[in-house]
Every structure is written in C-alpha cells, then in structure tokens.
Amino acid sequence: MSAPVKATLSADQHERRLSRLVQLGFVASLALLWYLATNVWGMSPLLLPKPQNAFEELLDILRSGEFWPDLLLTLGELAGAFAISMTLGLAIGFMVSLSPVFVRIFEPLLAGVYAVPIILFLPLYVLFFGLGASSKIALGATISFFPIVLNTIAGFISVDKLYVTAAKSMGASPTVLLRHVLIPGALPIILSGLRMGFTVALLSIIGSETIASLSGLGHRIVNLAESLEIARMFAYIVFVIAIAATLNSMVSRLEASRSLDK
Amino acid sequence: MSASPALTNKQDVCVHIQNVSHSFGVEGQPKHVRALLDTTMDIHRGELLALIGPSGCGKSTLLNVIGGILNPTTGTASVNGKSVDGPMPHDIAYVFQENALFPWNTIIENIRLGMLFQGVPKADHEGRAREALQAVGLSEFADHYPAQLSGGMRQRAALARALSLDTPVVLMDEPFGALDEQTRMVLGEDLSALLSRTGKTIIFVTHSLGEAVFLADRIAVFTARPGRIKEVIPVEEPHPRKASFMTSDKFNGLRNRLFDLLHDEIRKTVSLTSGSSGGF
Ligand SMILES: Nc1ncnc2c1ncn2[C@@H]1O[C@H](COP(=O)(O)OP(=O)(O)OP(=O)(O)O)[C@@H](O)[C@H]1O
Ligand SMILES: [Mg+2]
User: Fold this and answer.
1) Residue A129 and residue A29 share a domain
2) What are A131-159's pLDDT values in tens digits?
3) Same domain flag for A183 and A254
4) Residue A6's pLDDT band (cuts 50, 70, 90)
5) Residue B51, domain member (yes or no)
6) Which residues of B160-180 are buried (b: 16+ CB within 10 A; e: fewer)?
7) Strand B74-79 relative to strand B13-24: parallel, antiparallel, unpaired?
8) ipTM attached to this prediction
9) Are A60 and A27 found together in one domain?
10) Is the dihedral of CA B266, B268, B270, B275 positive or negative?
11) Best substitution site from B26, B31, B32, B33 to test ligand 1's pocket, by max atoms within 8 Å of Cβ?
12) Which domain holds residue A163?
C-alpha cells in the first residue's frame, strides 16, 4: 500500500522540480539575452538599459524605500477593487445560478459584456471618479467582476444534480445543502474565477495608472519613461513583475490548497 | 392488473404502491417514454423485495417514486402509512444506482454528513459511522476519498452511509452492481444476517438472478418497458440465509424459473447483436 504511494509522490516531486528548472532556465535566458543585447550587440541604452544599470537602480529603489507610497496605493486599489468584484460576483453569480431561466437570460449577457475591452471606458471612469484611486478601483472592480460572476454561475450549475438529490433524500435543509454540497461542489471553478479576477484586476489597475493617474506604480513607470530615466524605469518594471508574480503565486497556491481534496 | 397478492393484514404493510404509472416527456413528442405502467404492490414490514427486469423497464423509476424523488404521473405511494410527496429522510434511506458519494469528502465524512443531514445528534456520528464502515468491511478506508476506492468499494461505502441513517426502510438500486459475484454473495450473506437482526424493510433492484433468490423474500419480475409487474415469486426461506442455500435444489429451481420469466422480456428489449445476448 505504502510503496506505490511513495513512488507516485516522488515522481510528482521529480516532475515539479523539472518544471521549476525549465521555468528558471527561461528567466535566466531572458536575462542573458538582455545582457547580450545591451553589452555585446550594442543596443541603445535609451531603448534598453544595461541590466547591471537597471539592477543598481533597483537596489537604490529598494534601499531608499521610495516605492512604498506607490506600492501601497496600487495594492490598496487592488484590494478595494477585488473586494467589490468578489462580493458582487459571488452574490450575483449564486443568485443567477438558482434558476435555469436566469442562467439562460444572464449568462450570455454577462459573457457578452466580458468580451468588451472595458478599459476603453477608462476616460468615462476618470470623468466620474476623478484621477485618483477611486477610478482605478471602479475600473478594476468592473473588469474583474465578469470572470468571477461567470465562473460562479458555471461552478454552481456544474454540481451534479445527483448529489443534490442524494442530500435532499437524506433530509438536507437548503442552508445545509448550500454549505455541504453546492459550495464544495462549485468551489474549484469558483476559485479559478477568483484567480482570473485577481489577475485582471491587477492588470487593469496598473494599466490605467499608466494612462490616467497622479500616482501608483503604473504612473511612476510612465513618469520615468517621460523623463528618459530608462534604467530606473526598467528597475520599476522588474519590481512590479516581481510583486505581480508573488501575488499570483500566493493566489494560485491558495487555490490549489483549497481544491486539493478532490 | 395487479400481480401482487392482496394482503389481509393491513398493519403489516410498510410500503404501499397503488396504480403507479409514470411517463417522461410530453405525450405525443418523440421523447415521450412510458416508463412504468399501473403498478400496484404491497411490501410487508421487515420484508426484502427484489425488483428484477429488463434494462430500462422502470425499476429505478419505481424506487424514485417510493423515495419521494419523483412524482408519478398517476397513482400514489405511501410509506409507514404516510403518503409520499417528497423525501422522507427519517423513514427511507436510498442507495442510488449511480455513485452518489460526495467526491470532495472522505468516506467517513460522507457518512457523517448523511447523519448531519438527517439530524442525528453530533455525539452519535463518529460511533455510528465507524460501525457502518465495519459492517461493509471498509474500516481501513475511512479517510480515503471516493475517487481512491474501487467501484465496488464505493458501492459498499454508499451502502454504509445508508445503513448509518438507521431508517426502517432502505431502497437500494443495484447496490452490488459493481461487485464480483463472489463478493456480492458474501456481502449478501452479511446483509441477510443484518436484516434478520434489524427487521428493516428493503426494496432492492438487481440484475443478478442469484442475488435476487439469495436475498429476497419475494421477487417482483418486471415486463419490458413500459414496466409492469409480471409476476411475484415468493422465496420462503428464513433469514439469515447460509451459503449452503445457494447450492440447494430449491435455489436453483427458483433461479431457473426467474430465468425463464425474464428471458422472454429481455428478448423484447434487446435485438440480437453478435453473441452478446446472454449477460447472465
Ligand atoms: N429523467 C428521465 N427523463 C426521461 N426519460 C427517463 C428519465 N429517467 C428514465 N427515463 C426513461 O424511463 C425508462 C425507465 O428508466 P429506469 O431508470 O427506471 O429504468 P431501469 O429499469 O432502472 O433500468 P436499468 O436496469 O437499466 O437501470 C427508460 O427507458 C428511460 O428512457
Ligand atoms: Mg435503474
């Protein structure tokens, strides 16, 4: 009994180590390419700074701590947007899933709006909410609402009717049914909707900060570009990528741990 | 119409089915299916009734009607004197034909959940769950997920969940369908012993002639769709039944009789495909 379990575990670990290796190799070769392009092939530092210069700038940014206000603002906007879209997405998604008629009416409607590049309405958001954090929160909430609500609907309607029937035949009340059958059954799909929502919220917030904003990480990057501080701009880009990757892996890990008990 | 013997002692009737017919879909539409036709039957308290018949003849449909999951087109069912119009979790436990264990819970969690749904006090959950697992020989697999068990083990786990609910009536739709003939018979022996102790009323669907004869007090043989009860065969052998019953002349006589009854009906449902007709 224990031997085959061990075997599959180690095979699993082996595979994980291998994929980590490939991922690291990918990042390393990108860095190498960057180094070669700037130091050997003579690419203009106005287009692409040398990685060592960008690295120095990055150290300076981290040492000085000047990134804190922008980082906190962007993360705050992200938290606000995600809190709104999660609450509305889960609640509305659940209510729509209650009736096949609602699903038939609203699911295509929501999926249709999801396909619209909502970022185009950024000027409207700025008009309504100003250049500050509110417009970023509103836009991020709008954009991330759709994957969350759509996956919530898909999650709840994917729960096999047999489980519902079985639970009812054993006397499950509606709330007990929700807690012990519908939610656990829908959870994997809902979680992946939340992860997608989180990602697009982050993208749209940083994106809109680069277009119309007075502060935030996205705004900082554009500012540096305009003042031609290219090395520092790249340092910030690397910084943002690191933050985004960290957040994403945190969310993915959360998702994996919650849907592990299959 | 009714093939069931009329019962004289009304108090002894536990499940009463009166002229139950059921059709799926809209009359006249191509998908309209008459699944069950005018079935009347009384099942005594403590009795074990086997339903046997061709595939698609309406056996699951009848169990669903009794279990309060399906409203019949016409006719009524009543259990313990109460007319059925929805699930009756305190009277009936239902083991479904398809596996209905929740895949996101372990086996023991599945069993505890059933008791939670039914309203059993929390303090009793653990003990009763362990007991039920023991009864089906799955104690070691309490913490496994359904996907980690074999098909037959999952069926036994589903049976354990139903038994833990401790209802007077148990409906079982091919509970041992995924088990091999030998395990099925051994489990059948245990079930027979268990039943004679607890006095439960059991209605179960099976495709195994041997299982029907070995377990049942009476066997209701269905016609091809739309299903009606063609004949009810009494077995008249006290529980608990010993394995030796299986090799007796009586057993084989009944089994052959069932075979003859079913053979004609199954001929009506399946067309001859290259040599795969037998099946039992
Ligand atoms: N939900 C449904 N919608 C439409 N038709 C159905 C439905 N359930 C069953 N039927 C039809 O009713 C008939 C009887 O189905 P049922 O499940 O009761 O058969 P069964 O006797 O249990 O067969 P099996 O032995 O194969 O399980 C089938 O022919 C099927 O086509
Ligand atoms: Mg069936």
Assistant:
1) no
2) 999 999 999 999 999 999 999 999 999 99
3) yes
4) low
5) yes
6) bbbbbbbbbbbbbbbbbbbbe
7) antiparallel
8) 0.87
9) no
10) positive
11) B33
12) 46-261
Q: Given this model, what pLDDT does residue B5 score?
A: 44
> What is the number of CB-based contacts under 8 A between chain A and chain B?
59
CA B260, CA B33: separation in Å to the nearest integer? 26
What's the domain range around B20? 3-91+167-279
Band of pLDDT at residue A183, cut at 50, 70 and 90: very high
Residue with tokens 């031609």: A228
Task: Give how far B263 is from chain A: nearest CA, Å.
Answer: 32
**Two tokens, residue A50:** 């040398």
Q: Are residues A39 and A73 in the same domain?
A: no
In a domain, residue B172? The reply is yes
Percentage of chain B surpassing pLDDT 90?
A: 59
A245 Ramachandran zone, left/alpha/beta (phi>0; psi -120 to 50): alpha
* pLDDT at site B27: 81
Confidence of residue B135 (pLDDT cuts 50, 70, 90): confident
Q: Cβ < 6 Å from ligand 1: which residues?
A: B 24-25, 33, 35, 55-61, 97, 225
Cα(A257)–Cα(B182) distance, integer angstroms: 41
CB-based contact A170 B102, cutoff 8 Å = no
**Given an 8 Å threshold on Cβ–Cβ distance, is A162 in contact with B98?**
yes
Please list every residue in chain A whose beta carbon sits closer than 8 Å to the beta carbon of residue B89.
Answer: 169-171
Beta strand B218-222 with B92-95: parallel, antiparallel or unpaired? unpaired
Residues A157 and A37 occupy one common structural domain: no
CATH code where residue B74 lies: 3.40.50.300
Q: Are A22 and A63 within one domain?
A: no
Total domains in chain A come to 2
Number of independent structural domains in chain B? 1
Q: Is A64 in the same domain as A184? A: yes
SS3 B51: strand
Are residues A59 and A4 part of one domain? Answer: no
Q: Tell whether B197 is covered by a domain.
A: yes
- DSSP H helices, chain B, are 59-66, 107-118, 122-135, 151-164, 181-198, 209-215, 249-269
Give the global pTM. Answer: 0.84
> What kind and span of H or E run contains A232?
helix A230-258
> What's the pLDDT tens digit per position in A83-95?
999 999 999 999 9
CA distance B157 to chain A (A): 14
